[in-house]
Every structure is written in C-alpha cells, then in structure tokens.
Amino acid sequence: MRTRIISTATALAVLFSSAALVALASGPAAADSDKRLDIRSAGDVLVDGEHQRVYVSDPRGGKIVVTDYAGTVKATLDGLPDVEGLALSPDSGQVYAAVAGLNRIVSVETTSYSQTASYALDGAEKPRTLALASGKLWFGYGASAEGGIGSLDLSGGEPVITLDLDGAADFYAAPELGSDPDSGILVAGEKATSSDALTVYDVSGPKPELRVTKSVEGGFFDDIAVSPDGTQIVTASGAPYYHPVYSTKDLSPLGRYDSGDYGSAVDIAPDGTVAAGTFSWYRPDVHIYRQGKWSKVREYDFPNTAQGSGGDTLAEGGLAWAPDGSRLFAVSSNSDDVFSLRILTDPAKSLPTLTVEAPEKAPRARALTVEGKLTGTGLPAGTELTVTRTDVESPDGKALPPVKTEADGSFSFTDSPPAGGKVTYKVAYAGDATHAAASASDSVEVSRTKTTLTLDKNGKVFGYGADVAFTAHLGSTYKNRTVEIWADPYGADKPNKLVERGVVNSRGDLRATVDMKRDTKVTAVFSGDARSASAKATSTAYAKVKISSSVSKHYRTGKIGSTTYHYFHKNTDPVLATTMSYYKDRKQRLEIQVYGPDRKWHSTGSDYFKLGTNGKSTVRLEAPGESGIRARIRSSYVNGTSGDNVNSTTHGAWKYLNFTR
Fold first, then answer.
1. Has residue 380 been placed in a domain?
2. Which of 446, 465, 497 delimits the end of a domain?
3. From CA 119, how far away is CA 158, in angstroms rounded?
C-alpha cells in the first residue's frame, strides 16, 4: 500500500484554500450457394454424379480438392505438382488427372480417394488436358514447340500408351481438348497461343482420323465442349466476345451464344443445355442457353467478395454440369486470389420475375386489394399462383384461395384481414419443367386499437441494493394480457434483462422486483394482439452508491456539543479510509472543510482519488502542526465526475477532526 499526503497546514495558511490531495493506492463475441476453396489456382473442375462429388485441380498448389454437392471438402489429394486436366471413367470408379509436374497420368479411386495407378508417359512431357472418347483417355501434352495428342487405352490387360496422334495438325504446346464420349468426336485447339485453328478427329476406329482442320474465330482456347449428340462444338476464348458454335462435320459456323465478354469456360449438359462462362468484372459471368437457341435462359452475376472494385471472376475452364442437370458448378476467384466453388441450382430453368404490391395501410376487417405480376418467357395466361397470409393470429401462415394470371401476367385479389398489425401476403409460383419457382411478398400495416400501458417509479432515487417493486398497468385489450418487464442497468457491462413475464392480475397490474445497485431503465412491453396495438412504457429509477469511511491515527474520540470528534495531536497525520461500491475506473471525491472564527464551516477544496478494485481508497492528510484547529472531511460519489455515470450522486457522512497539543 502506498500512502500519499495532503497538507492541512498549507490550507490553513491561506485561510482554507484548496488542498493538494494525493491518493493512497489500495486493493487488489437449397438455393444457390458458395463455399471457399483452399486452393492457389484452378486448373479444371469435374463432377462425379454417381457419388455426388466435385473435383477441382490446383496446379500451383499441386493438389486436387474433393467436395460434396454442397461444397463441403471431403478429401484433399496432395503430391500432384502442376496437376491440371481431369476426367471420369465411364463407370465413375476412377478419376484421371494429368500431372504435368510428373509427366504422368494418375488414377484415383472415387470412394476411397486412394491412388490406384500412375501411368508414365515416356516421350510426352507436361500432359495438361484430358478427354474421354470411344473408350480411350486422350491427352494433350507438350512443352513449348512440342505439342501433341496421345491416348491411354485401359481396355486390355495392360495399359497401352500411344503418342503423336495429332496427324497433320500442328500444336505449339498441349492443346485444349473437347469430346463426345459416345460418338467418337474429339476436338483440339491451341491453348497456349493465338492460333485460331480447330481440329476435329473421329476416334471411333482403331486409329484417329483427322476429319477437318480449319481457322475459326478465337485463339488461346480456354475451353472446348462437344454437344451430347456429337454434332456441335462450342468454344471459349479471349476473343470474340461471344461463344461461337461450329459443326463437327466441317467446322462451318452454326451460330453464336452472345455472352458479351471474354469467353473463359463452356460446358454442355447431357440434355444439350449450354453453360457459357465469361471473364467479367462488371457484367454477368455465367450464361445459360438451350442448344441451338440463341436467347439466354438465365444468367448469373458473381458478387464482389474482396475489397477491390469489380465482382469475382470465373476461372478458365471453371464450369461443370452435374450429370442430371440439377446443378452447375463454377469455380471463381476474387482480386485477393481467394477461390470459391459456386453451386448454381436448377440453372437450366428460366427465372420468372414475380412482384407483389399491397397497400401501405388498411383498416382491420375491411376489404383491401393486392396486385402483382408474373413475367417470364413462355408463361401462359391462367398460370396459378398460391397465396398465403401471415399475421399475429396465423404466424405460420394461412392459405388463401389461389389466384390466376391474366394474359399479361398480372393478377389481383381482395382480402379482409381479421387481425391487425403487420399482415404479409406471400404469392408463389411453383415452377415447371422449364421455369424455376418464384415468390414475392408485401406487407400492410392493419390498424389496431391503441393500448394503454404505464409503469411507476420514474425519477425515484433509492439506496444502494434496495429491492424495488415496479408495477406495470395494462389497460383494456382484445385477448392478450401478457406483459414483460425488462431492467437495463446503466453501464455497458450489464445487459438488458427480462425480470418478469406474466399475465396481469384482475386490476391489470404486473409487478417485478429490481435490485437497485445502479441507475436502471425499466421497460414494460406489451406485444399486442389481433385487435390491440403493441405498447411500451419506460421508467428510469436511480440508485445511490454504498459509502463508509473511517478515521485512524487519532488518540481518542469525544464530543463537542452533540458532534463526535476524533482527537489528534497537532503533529499527527490523520488517515481517512473509504469503502465505496466499485465500478471500473471509479473515483471518490474527498472534500475538506475547516471551522472558522465565524463559527461556520468553510471548504478548503476537494479532489478525486481512484478506488482500488476492492472499492477501497485511503488518503493521509498532513498534520497542521498547530493546535486549536477543527476540520471535517467526507467522501462522495458524484455522477459524471467520479469516472462514470452508473449511479446517483451520493455523499458519505462527515468525519470531524480536532487538533490539540
């Protein structure tokens, strides 16, 4: 304990001017979705529909991440430097990966994720792309100026690897590949340079037959897809700003999907639905088309998940359909190189627009009109919509008669809401084979009778720790007679707390007892009912602190008149020990007064002293050095200047001192 001193003698010398006080220290927080991927790059994405798994290769990270359809990681396959292209065996039992850093194709079992085989590609460096066609695994390989196409045949007892199958075509490095496994169509395009040549092979026979090589629109082909019927090719490349479509027979142009930005990916579902992906900071990233139909069915615009401008962007080759067409998986990244797997549900269905508009306010039990409109391609007049009303008496919703659309998609209905308060009307379209479901809602504030609610004790001051009963009074209501009483003590460390909840008595009263250790805001709450409006009443009551002081170092006590004094020798320093209700950084205010010749008490000044964590503060006053002096001292808590405002100003008792020889 460290004692510091004030000088009473100095104060007396200037006729009780302010004393220099010093303290004594004392005391001792199933819609479209996305999941973050722990990868550094994205090489390819593959969907295993049999086991509902998604594989994403990470060339820079040297691994493959496996997730379920919800994006939850199920396995991470490491030790695959510069892994890129992925392919799934026809029986869904193996996933093949082109591992350029090992000059191998690696096979992984799809239930245990264990590596089952590793095929060395002697003479074929840096395999990067894979495609299945006619029972063989085709791969694009080659370092700079050494590009080619090879095949891996696993149909016999031993694997058979054949290289240099690109024929008269010339590839600078490993080409991008696309295929239709059933028709035997294999398509290759330059991935590493701006060459605009595409090459179509028929690989249904013992040896691949080069069907056609031709210059087309594009170059730096990021992705190539072949339609399930083997008749069409769709490419994605840095130019043009659309996804062109070609015939597999002679590469003649058949049309284009106007995606509107740099092409970065393309994949075609088993039913022919085309997903065209673009590199787009400020426009939609994924565009859905029906095969051979050039108007969009649907599109997706990725949000911005980083601090920079522009939305997340689609990875090259970062699209893959689930085999049943129920989902489209997209790999995206933001400006901080954080990657995500986006799961797009029912993407082949167009998304209708549904609007609902209800009045802002309406009287209870009177008819109101709700209007709206359903718009979307191919939606006929008479399309049925369900209607649900939610209110205080039907919080889970009550079904109303369905409504049908007019020729322009508009609809309206009337309703007389039986309950007041917030009433919400939800209108829903169930969707069909080509349209996704849609819903919309709007709310109306329906009038209720005003409710009277009062709470007593406002402005009252109570002693520290007093148990104070607050009474809430509720006036007439329709059904609900339940009231809650909350107490919110001053200070950020004490939460607002429910102290009583119950049905009021026959007089409409509910009482709650609050332990008044701090100033407290008490609130009574009535939640309302179908015909009575909600109500709230507040009462702020105040609590004093608890103060006790003691004097030491005196040689006796005695009375002067009716007042008890502590007697000190003129050279003995008095010590005042104060205990006060503790609060963080709280200080006591110590005041000194001296009895003057005019028989009146005069203030010599005051100062503040911080309490210890045990609520104690001790101050020593320097002895005056002369006799015949009478003084008094007291400790106080002053709201706002004692370091906080959580209690009401409280003064301790005066302690009287008499200095003698």
1. yes
2. 446
3. 11
Residue-wise pLDDT tens digits, 586-631: 999 999 999 999 999 999 989 999 999 999 999 999 999 999 999 9
In this structure, what token pair is assigned to residue 162? 């054949």
> How big is the CA angle at 317 (ends 91 and 254), to the nearest 5 degrees?
95
State how many domains the chain has: 4
**DSSP string computed for 308-377:** SSS--EEEEEEEEE-TTSSEEEEEEE-TT--EEEEEEESTTSB--EEEEE--SEE-TTS-EEEEEEEE-T
**C-alpha torsion 262→174→93→32, nearest 10:** -10
Judgement on whether residues 606 and 576 belong to the same structural domain of the protein: yes
Contact 627, 659 (CB under 8 A): yes
CA-to-CA distance for 605 and 594, rounded, in angstroms?
10
Q: Assess if residue 428 is contained within a domain.
A: yes
Domain containing residue 366: 353-446
Residue 12 sits at φ, ψ, to 5 deg, of -70, -35
CATH of the domain at 578: 2.60.40.10
User: Do 638 and 554 share a structural domain?
Assistant: yes
Q: Is 652 found in the same domain as 585?
A: yes
**Same domain (yes/no): 598, 566:** yes
What is the rounded distance in angstroms from the CA atom of residue 347 to the CA atom of residue 325? 8
pLDDT at 16: 31
Nearest to 621 by CA among 574, 658, 556, 584: 574
Q: Which of 106, 110, 80, 105 is nearest to 94 (CA)?
A: 110
What's the mean pLDDT when you consider all of the chain? 93
Res. 3: pLDDT tops 80: no
Query: Are residues 428 and 438 in contact, defined by beta-carbon separation less than 8 angstroms?
Result: yes
Within a domain: 570: yes
Residue 200 lies in a domain: no
Separation between Cα atoms, residue 576 and residue 561, nearest integer Å = 23
* Euclidean distance between CA atoms 57 and 60, whole angstroms: 9
Q: How many CA atoms lie within 13 A of 309 on its CB side?
A: 1
Cα distance between residue 486 and residue 582, in whole Å: 24
CATH at 94: 2.40.10.500
Rounded to whole angstroms, how far apart are CA atoms 656 and 661?
Answer: 17
Task: Note the pTM of the prediction, 2 decimals.
Answer: 0.66
